[in-house]
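Researcher: I'd like a structural prediction for the single chain below. Treat it as a standalone chain; there are no partners to consider.
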Amino acid sequence: MITADDDPRIQLARRTVGAVTTIADASLPPHVLHLADNRGDTYFAKQHGRSARYAQEVRAYTAWAHHLHGHSPELVARHDSTRTLLLTAVQGRRGQCLPPGSREEEQAHHDAGLVLQSLHRGTAGRSVGALGIELASRLQTWIAKAERVGLLSGTEPRLLARIADELAAAPMDSAVCHLDYQPQNWITGSGLWVIDMEHMRRDARVRDFARLEFRRWQAAPHLRDAFFHGYGAHPTATEQRLLEQFGAIEAVTALVRGHEKDDPALAAHGRTVLSRLS
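Model: Treating it as a single chain, here is the predicted structure.
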């Protein structure tokens, strides 16, 4: 059993900022601790279970976070052999805790669009054909997983295969993307901060809208308008079609993950998104 003295997160914090105490925070996952030092400064100490996710988050903070212009935590220290990060804690509420339909919720979506625009603009790349092929291959892998466990029926495999072919041929602009950009990863208060950057990598720029498009905006289109007002432009017709194609990845991933984790809500989400595709 890991005690406080041999917990890599506590050890990293003590080496970096001195004595720390743990702050009880039921909202955090088990691999994250909320800590305070003797000066009252607070931190999150996070230990990754997977080397790839750790490497991606380190790169996010060291190479790309400056494009968020202060709207993210700061990386205070890291320990590579234990895959541990020490980050400054930002104060506020997670975006999903804001009252539905409130002015605060709408403002959060506007601010989130503004912040994401900074990241995309600062890392923009030209249209890259190989990116479409890579995403099509990823979709085909998820289709195969879904078919192996009988999650697709009727014309669904053919529909998804057609979308994969369309993705492979589609030109798309690239940017460094968060790839889990949704209210649970926004902290709101006297501004907005973006957290949990372990998925961040260069990808199709429009793909960064997919979680919001398929998980939030269908029931609240005014939030979509607020977001893109902050972002500076709504998707073009071509980009919107590409976003709908990314819905295929969202749908099949949710179906498979829902099956693997015995999560009926996630599986139902996948089925709902799949029903929208045409």
